[in-house]
Queue: 2 jobs
Job 1
Amino acid sequence: MSIRENLRRGRSHIITAVVLIVAGALVVQIEDRNLQREAGKPAPDHAAPIKDAATALDKIQD
Amino acid sequence: MVRAIKANGANVSADFYFTKFENRRPPAPLPQSRSVELIWQFLAICSLVAGAVYIWWRWTSSLNMDALWFAIPMVVAETCAYFGLFLFTANLWKTRDYPRREPPASITECVREGEAVDRPVSVDLFIATYNEDVELARLSIRDARQVAYPHSIDFRIHVLDDGRRADMQRVCEEEGVGYITRDNNAGFKAGNLRNAMERTSGDFIVICDADTRPFPTMLEHTLGYFRDPDVAIVQTPQWFYDIPEGERLQDVWGRHAGSPGRLLGKAIETVFGEIRVGEDPFANDPAMFYDIIQRRRNPWNAAFCCGAGSIHRREAVMFVALRAYADAIAHDPANARSRIARLLRPRNADEDALARWQAAQEQELTPYKFHVSEDIYSTIVLHQDKERTWKTVLHPQVESKMLSPQDLLAWTVQRFKYAGGSLDIFFHDNPVTRPGMSMAQRVMYLTTFWSYLGALWNLVFLLAPIIYMTTAIPPVSAYTGDFFMRAMPFLVLNELAFLMGTWGLSGFQGKVSYLASFPISLRALWAVVRRRKISFPVTPKQRQEGNHLRLVWPQIAIMAATLFSFAWCALRLFTVGGGYSLGGLIANGLWGLNNILAMSIMVRAAFWKPEDETSKLESVA
């Protein structure tokens, strides 16, 4: 069986992965922009560890 | 085999719906590739690590403390699903088939030294039936008669008729095979098999249902495994040769929308590969189960018997009976125990399995557990034996063909039996915690049982986007970016891992039917928890007419609630805000869309009709 045929059979995995990546990037972009607008400062660095996300969110909302 | 059917079958069963599929050939087993396996294992580990990071973060840093009623069930569901993923990864870890060996010429090649005298092997092929069309059974008998063997063999075919039908007896006489019946239906199929075992004496037993049509190579390809005297059961993959193939997308759209439709369909198929509309509407194709799940239990000696298409060593089956009987009277007086001990102890050279079986007949024995899942239950008893390491083998090549459930009712009955039977064992005689099995075997059985419990967390996953889009309450309290930073690597790696782990097979149908069949598993779970007996209805082999919508009302309810909540969320977001966010709407909308697509497969199955019936309706219209 060719690689192409195997990929065809497994396409649901590939499509799901692509949708996840595209949708995730889109949602993060939208939410960061909203946060920035509401808080009046740049969006947080998501790679940095957060000790208490709920508290951080409350602070932003305050 | 097909020639035999054509030659002999012209006067019978010409109008069976499956006659047109007679020329179909089963797919070859998936080829083994060490490089693909290594990539799968690498990605699987990466996925599990990413998943562990995500689950840890969910418990420690992202629970919505203001809505614990929602946050806790959600995180518990995620954790249970992650544990299920861990088990499933272990199940799929590697493929190592048992080595194929030459078919034995003498029974002495299949037993320990001195346990039998030199003679050809003897095999009984049982065709268990209850109310199936006698002409359907005739096809199976004729195919069974074509089974060949390269050595001299004592091969006998018996129809086990629990319907006590004169027609069935007449067919057996016409075809020159044995007819076995009894005056009651105690134990249903298991009781039927027990009755037949009491009247036969073959070294090996082939289990077939009324629609199981063995290929001529079945014995030649499988009896060699029994050269290992510890091999108790060889299961061959079940293959449904009547699964609808569907129609190419470009043809369907071309029929409905002319050239533009055909061109669009063709363009889509060029990008995504061939798409068939209406293919396998009930997700019946068992290839994933046999070629991936069961086959990859071979390295751990944990493949289990699934009934039709399996070959059993009579001695091993008898062992199950004796062990179960011994357990049952374990608390009885000493004289009863000693009687059992005499039956179980090793024999002298001149006494073979048959002698032990005859001795056992004097007792009230049940070779196959009188249980709705007698196949897996009997395998469990074998695997639990501490005194002898019985082995079970999944032979990767298809050696018979059979019919699939042709309507949603038959499909539901079958799935309910699987789920109810497995959960009943899990709750009332759990092999995972009882002594006897190796750790790997326990993990494999736990994987099976855990998958049936999955309906509980799948229900949470189905309801979660509805709850958010209706109430604006998220179960997660974190920045969106933080959430996706941890969830995305896990989810994407998981998809890529299983792309490689199931390389060569499509797992989509199985995945969505697993999600969409949650009501069946929940009903089975509810019945088992209340200690209700899971009944033994025979899975209908003929298509049942009627409306099956009543079977899918939970799926329709989920679809409707998801659509309603999405509309509500969008309306609130774009009017008053209502605490919603666009990101939340998109993320939960896509999640809900995934759920709707999964549910829709089951709802479409309720409306499915064979191509012939659809054509008739269209021509009438």
Job 2
Amino acid sequence: MTQAIATGAAPAGARAVTQPKRADARDRWARRLPLLPALIFAIIVTQVPFLVTLYLSTLGWNALRPGERHFVGLANYASVLTDARLRAALVNTIVLTAGAVLVSLLLGLGLAVLLDRRFPGRSVVRTLLITPFLVMPMAAALLWKHAIYNPAYGLINGLLGGHTDWVSSYPMVAVVATLVWQWTPFMMLILLAGLQSQSEEVLEAARVDGASARQVFTHMTLPHLRQYLELGALLGSIYLVQTFDAVFTITQGGPGTATTNLPYEIYLTTFRKFEYGEAAAAGVVVVIGTIVVATFALRVISSLFRMEEGR
Amino acid sequence: MRKAAWTVTAWAVGIVFVFPVLWMVLTGFKREQDAASNPPAWLFHPTLDQYRQIFGRNVTPYLLNSLMASGFSTLLVLVLATPAAYALSMRPVGKWRDALFFFISTKMLPAVAALLPIYLVVKQLGMLDNIWTMVILYTAMNLPLAVWMMRSFLLEVPRSVVEAAAVDGAGLGLTIRKVIGPIVSPGIAATALICFIFAWNEFFFAVNLTATRSGTAPIFLVGFISSEGLFLARLCAAATLVSLPVLLAGWLAQNKLVRGLSMGAVK
């Protein structure tokens, strides 16, 4: 099995450069044409709403008080930036995302190492391990809340005894544990691909030279896995920062604001308080924050690109 | 000996991970009073009552809505993404890299920031609780993923083969049908699978933009939250039912899964 991180930029890039200089306009449009439908669709559905959000964020507009829609300038931003709930939501988002990504990455690494070796029933075990990822997230959240965490008849108390109400005692842990359970298989798959792309000969040579299994792992395997770890962390963060289902179902953001993350907080502002202006401003702030983080993330992707081209 | 220990450990870990799913499936075949027992009931008389009740509560329209939203959005994604991926790989536009990063950046935009304007526009157009609204949104959601994935598959088509076809006088249409098509069709299938999974599982837009008429499978599940009395067995049966299509598809295509989830970056 040949597996490699490959965005395959090199051949295409080379081709773009070798285009004749006087490539006439017609040829350029012929090249663009297949791209345009997707590009226009993406712009209309993803960029235009953002512009509308920008406009809405300057309005004082609560849908419960129709007719009172007026321009308030940056007032919404002032209230959003000084809002303690939103700050709590920001912190919760970071804790939730970082916690879930790191733990699932570590567990995923362990599982990938386990599966990297041949043993009877390996493919069955792999199938078992990817199963949590395939369960519908809403089903998983409901399952954990009612069948596992429930104080009266949940599985944990059923097996361990006691009457702990896991969700209210450890709300953040309860949410993160559910997410970790779902996302560990994802990390495992990516890291397993990384492990299997190692050159067996090089590892064998190191062993022949007297390197211990542990030395091989820390000095050869881990550096090799670095880009796979980065990729897993990046993709995991993209998805997990938007976590909604688990919070909505397991804790409803509570108790208090203990597990309210940004998606859930903005959802509340929009559809529970109907503060459209404020919700829009909060959305803009989140987007700006995302752009900052994403710029960094895209740099990571670019470096993966360059690594490929340098080969 | 070491191998035996390794085997046992791996199997044990696998079973621990899959156990909640196993428990979900088992509980779906229990009577409500068995499902709510403490300590947990390991031996019980299996019953199909819960599944009967679920179909009695009309799960079918929800499943059909999910099937429509996921199926049509997947089709639309492929129709849009495949030519785009072609224009970003085999015969690239000048700024193919910028375009590629534009697509991935839309994936990073938090959906929640777009929710309000989308809600207002959809409401204005009278398209709330309409399955085609979901088709369009799921298409936008999966488009970046599909463009990246399809591009990675198209880059695997050997250039020499395409050039040879051109030398032999094959036109673009013929080349695509006879040369490129057969090589990338497994890639198209893998892309379709991933897009279908994400659309099938989507909840955030569904809960905010649909109601009774075009509610999707996860919306049906949420209906249980407000239920009074015992509902765990019924919930588990429903959760099993709505997860089943993706579980089956994922198990069957697990070799393609990693490539799709990493948007084509890991082969």
